Amino acid sequence: MGSELTMADVPLGPFAGSLITVYSAKNKAAKLHASRQCRQLRTSDVMTAKVSLDEAVLRRLCTRCAARGTGGRPGTGLGMFLLAIGETGLLCHLRSYREPDEDECWTDHEARGAAELLRAEQGLGAHDGEDEEDDAPLREAREEAENLRGLIFSHWCGARGSLLEAHALLAHFPWLEEWAKPSLSIKARYLETLRAQAARFVDREELVVAAAAAMALPMPELPCADPAFAVLGGNSRVSSALVCLWHRWQSTAGRIWEGPGTRAYLSCEIVRGIRSSQKGRGAARAEAARLIESWEELARAAAALADRAPKRRLTAHVPHASDGTPRHVLTDFLDGLDEWTLGVLVTWAVQAEWGSGVLTLEVPDLVAERLLGPASGLRCSPADGTVDSPEHDGRTGSEPGRLRPGVFDDTPVFDRCPVTLDHIRALRTLAPTADPLYLVFSASGGAEVLPLNTLERRLTKGWLGALIAGASDLPASVIGPEEPEHNHDSEVRATQLPGRGRDVHDPHFGESLGLAEGRHRTLRQTYGTEDRQLNLRLLALARGAHDLRSLDAGRSNGLPIEVWHGLLTEDRLNLAPFRIPSSNRRGRGRPLPLGPLAAVQLYTTNANPLIEGKGHSPLCRHAQHSAAVVRGDDLLAVADLMARTDFDWCSKCGGYALRRLTDTQLSYYRAAHRLHDVRERLDSQTGVPDSDPSGVIACLDELATWQPVDDAEWCSSDSWQWQETVRELTRMAARSHAVTRPS
User: Fold this and answer.
1) Could you give phi then psi for residue 251, rounded to 5 degrees?
2) Among 408, 413, 404, which residue's Cα sits nearest to residue 424?
C-alpha cells in the first residue's frame, strides 16, 4: 500500500451498502458523479440513480468527486466519512511525507555539511558594519545552509502534523486502523529521519545555556555607578539601560540559531543613539561587552552543573485534532513555538505516541524547569503521572465518538442511536458546515429545537436523547421556493404596515407582522443561492423553538441575522381594539379580548424600570449585544404589555421586537380591527349614512363565525365576549337610521 491509494481501497465498514444518489451520462461505462453540478459531467441528458455504496461504485466515481469526498449529504455520518477519507483527507495524509519530496530533495551528507557550516558561523557572531563584508562564496554558502535548515524543519513539522492528523481521523473510524498501519509505519520512520537531520542543526549546550539564562540566573547586581557608563546619563538612565541589556541578553539566549557571538554584539545596543565621536562611547561599549561575557560565564557554569545531573523525563501533550475544532481551522501545535522549544523537541524526544498525541522527552533539569514553567509554549507534565493526561480531561469516555449509521443519518427514528458528547465533538471537527440547529427528542423533554452549544451542555449533565433532523434535513418541498415572491406592488405593501391609516378591511392589512412576510424578509436579505436554502431551513426550524432565547445567539456560529429578521419584527401591534376607549358617547366601552394575541412574545434587552438603561429591541443598533436574542434578554407577552405602563423604552426602536404572528394570530388581529372599525363607525355621531347598511350587517355576520385557523378551541370567556360584542353591534346596525330609512 503506497502513494497509489484511492477511495476504492478504503474499507467502508458499517457504511458499506449505504444508499447514495449518483449522476451519470446514459452509458453503462460512464463515470459516476456525486454532484449534478460536477464539471466533469459534460452532458445535458443526465441519469439519476440511487445505488448501494461499495468498491465498484467508488471505482466508477469521477476523480473530482472522489477527491472532494462527496457522495453523502453534509452533516450525515456517511457525508462526514467520505469527506474525512477523501483525497484531501486521510488518503492525502497516508500518501504524503513517506519519503523525500521529489522537488525538494536533499541528501544526508548535505544536511550534515550545512549543519557544520552554521555551527561554525554561530561562533563568529554578527557583524556591526565596521568589519569588512564576507566574501561572496562564503555568504552564498551560509544562505544555502540556512535555507536547507528551514526546509528540513518545515518538512519535520509538516510530517509530524500529517501523522497526528491521520491518527486523529482514524480514531473516528476504528475499522480503518489495521488497514492504515503499513502507511503509518512508513510515515513514522520518515518522520524520525527528518527529526535526526533537524537535530544536527541544534547545539545541545546552547539549549541548556538558554534555559539557565531564563530560569537559573537571578538578575545580578548591576554596576550602575561604574564611571564607564557615565556617557549614558544620570544614575537612573544607566540603571534602566543595564536592566534592558540584561533582559535582551536573556531573550537572545533563546534564539538558538544565532549563538553566543550575536549575544556579544548586544554591547552595541547600550550606546545606540550616541555619536561615535563622543568621548566615553567606546569605554561604555567595552564595559558592556565584559558585563555580557560575565553573564555568559555564569550561564555556562549553571548549564554545566545541570548537565551532570540525571535527566528528567517529561510528557508533552499534543492537542488532538478531534477535540471539536473544525479541521479547516486547525493549526499545527508547532506553529507558535519558539526556536528553543523546537530545538528541545528534535534533540530530546525519545518516544512519540501519535495516536494519543503524547511525546516523551528526556531533558536536563534546567530545560525541564523551563518547559514546566508558565512561559512554556508546550503543555508538559512530569512523566510520573502527577498531571492528568489528555484522555482524562473531563470527557464522558476515553475514546472519541465512533461515527456510524444511526446517529446523524436518515435512518428510521426507532433505529436511532443516542447522541453522545463525543459525537457532537466529532461533528464539529469533521463537518465544518454543521447545522446550527437540530430537532432532538428525549424522554425527559420530548421534541425540542436546540443549537449544538445547548445540546453539548446538556450532554455534559447526563442528558439522553437522539437527533431527529438538522436544518439541512428538512424537505425542500415543504420549505417552498427559494426566490422571494413579488406579489404586491408598493401601494399594496404599504397597507401591510400598521399605523399608516390604511383600511383595516384590506385583505393585506397587518401582513408585515406575519410569518409569510418574515420569510420574504429573510430571502430579501440573503444573497447567496446556497445561503437562501440554508436560511429558509433554519428559519423553519427556529420557529419551532418555544423561547427564542434558547437558540443561544451569543455564540459565534449562531443564526444569521437574516434569519432573526424572519423570526422577529420591530413593527408595532395596534392594540386599540383591546383597550377601553378614552371617550365613548354611548357608554359602550367594553374592549375586545386579546384572545390568541395574549401570548404573543416580545423580546427586549431590559423590561425592568428599576435597572439602569432603556429597553431595546434585540434588533436595535443601540442594543449592547449582537443583533439577535440572547440568554440575558427579557421575555414578555402582549398581555404583560397591556397590564403595565412603567416600561422605559428606547425611542428609536420602541423597546422590543415582536415575534411574528402565526396564521391564527394574524387572522384574529385582522378580525378584531374590522370589528373595532365597525363599532367606531356605529358609535360616531353621523352613524353610517355613507355606508351600505347591508354591507355592515354582512361584515358582522362574517365576524360572528370567526374561528382560529388551526381549529383550536377558543377560551370560553373570550369566545363569549367576542360573540356578545358582535350581537350588540348587529342590534345597533339594525336600529340605525342608515338601515331603517326608506330606499
Assistant:
1) -65, -45
2) 408
Question: Could you give the dihedral angle defined by the CA atoms of residues 431, 432, 438 and 443, in that order, rounded to the nearest 10 degrees?
Answer: 50
Q: How many Å apart are CA 198 and CA 346, to the nearest integer? A: 7
The answer to whether 5 touches 59, Cβ cutoff 8 Å, is no
CA angle, corner 335, sides to 334 and 338, nearest 5? 75
What's the rounded Cα separation, in Å, for the pair 439 and 465?
A: 11
- Position 538 scores a pLDDT of 92
For residue range 2-48, list pLDDT tens digits in order: 567 888 889 999 889 888 888 998 888 888 888 888 888 888 888 99
Region 586-605: mean pLDDT is 83
pLDDT tens profile 51-104? 898 989 888 888 888 877 777 777 788 888 888 888 778 998 999 999 887 777
Please report the beta strands in 282-347, taking only residues with DSSP state E, as ranges in sequence order: 312-317
- Phi, psi dihedral angles at 323 (to 5 degrees): -85, 15
Cell of 343: 530545538
How many angstroms from the chain centroid is the CA of residue 575? Answer: 42
Closest by CA to 422, choosing from 446, 448, 396, is: 396
pTM, 2 dp:
0.72
Per-residue pLDDT reduced to its tens digit, 658-673:
999 999 999 999 999 9
Lowest-confidence pick of 3-7, 722-726, 727-731: 3-7
Question: Are the C-beta atoms of 309 and 251 separated by less than 8 Å?
Answer: no
Q: Measure the CA angle with vertex 457, ends 451 and 463; round to 5°.
A: 100
Q: For the chain, what is the radius of gyration of the CA atoms?
A: 38
**337: enclosing H helix or E strand:** none
Strand order in the sheet with 601-604: 568-569, 657-659, 601-604, 634-637
**What span, in angstroms and rounded, lies between the C-alpha atoms of 152 and 196?**
10
Is the CB of residue 629 less than 8 Å from the CB of residue 551?
yes
Tell me the CA distances in angstroms from 729 to 644, 688, 690, one per residue in order: 30, 13, 17
Query: What is the distance of C-alpha 267 from the center of its chain?
Result: 48
Structure letter (DSSP) for residue 449: E
* 3-class SS of residue 439: strand
Contact 656, 617 (CB under 8 A): yes
Q: Which residues fall within 8 angstroms of residue 278, CB to CB, at 6 or more apart?
A: 231
Crossing angle of helices 515-525 and 529-542, in 10° steps, is: 150
Strand order from edge to edge, sheet including 312-317: 349-353, 358-363, 312-317, 380-382
**Among the residues of 461-606, which ranges form H helices?**
476-479, 490-494, 515-525, 529-542, 561-567
Q: How far is residue 502 from each of residues 673, 684, 698, measured CA to CA in Å?
A: 11, 19, 21
Tell me the C-alpha distance between 253 and 125, whole Å.
13
CB 44 within 8 A of CB 21: no
If we measure between CA atoms, which residue out of 663, 165, 657 comes closest to residue 429? Answer: 165
d(CA 715, CA 163): 66
Query: How does pLDDT run across 310-363, given as a tens digit for each residue?
Result: 889 999 887 554 455 555 444 454 566 788 888 898 899 888 887 677 889 999
